[in-house]
Amino acid sequence: MHRKVKEVADLAGISVRTLHHYDRIGLLTPRTVSDAGYRLYDEEDLDRLQQILFFRELGFPLRKIGEILDSPSYDRREALGLQEKALIEKRSRLDRMIVTIGKTIKNMEGESEMSQQEKFEGFDFSKNPYEEEARQKWGDEPVDRANEKMAAIGPDGREDLGRQMDGLFKKLASLRDRKPDSEEVQQAIGEWHEFLNGMGHTYSPEAFRGLGQLYVQDDRFTKNMDRYGEGFAQFMADAMSVRADRL
User: Which residues form the HTH merR-type domain (predicted)?
Assistant: First the structure.
């Protein structure tokens, strides 16, 4: 059975725009085209989409997902086993975080005491063991420099980076009524570019532009960024594109 892009989007709970993006970057390109020129997805395409979404849920970037799925050593059954293990661990960690939230509320209301250690039960952003295992099986690549830096700076350093990022986003969000090519906006977007380059990966102009496009092409990015103000994701994409052109 073949399905059109809208049917697949509804089935998977993602946007048509996301599927078009996957097609455009070669991550998921349906092999069948109707007489009218529509892309048609078959069962193998849907299986690949399922894998893409599992990897996305586990925090893999799209580029890495493509490398894994196209690796000669990739095995779907093996991948599903690893994904199941990783998601069970993620569920366990989220359960611990929910308990921590409950304890924190009771502590705030004076119903119970809470140790400093208890405040952070369930948090662990230092590593993604599943990603390391997957890389060893389907790429045998070293950990990305950004991940290495995040692990090296420790919890305090990551918290500080989070505050810096939040401050930059708030500053940029306050400028979203300005034109993306205005001097004030470009100065602020330059600060964002420099911040990213300090994270252990150098963003070329085209990579920086691509990241901006991801803000509007990936629904998760758009939703999170638009918390800083309606249309913020699109504003960032436009401003980052202008900077890329100027560089």
Answer: 1-71
Is the pLDDT assigned to residue 61 strictly greater than 80?
Answer: yes
Co-location of 169 and 100 in the same domain: no
- 8 Å CB contact between 203 and 178: no
Same domain, 103 and 163: no
Q: Do 11 and 86 belong to one domain?
A: no
Residues 6+ apart with CB under 8 A from 227: none
**Cβ–Cβ under 8 Å, residues 187 and 242:** no
User: How far apart, in whole angstroms, are the C-alpha atoms of residue 242 and residue 237?
Assistant: 9
Same domain assignment for residues 98 and 45? no
Size (the chain), residues: 247
Residue 118 is classified by DSSP as G
Residue 88 has a CB neighbour count (10 Å cut-off) of 10
Report whether pLDDT(174) > 80: yes
Q: What are phi and psi of 244, to 5 degrees?
A: -60, -40
pLDDT digits (tens, 9 = 90+) for 226-238: 889 988 989 999 9
Residue type, 224: N
Question: Global pTM?
Answer: 0.49
What's the confidence (pLDDT) of residue 15?
92
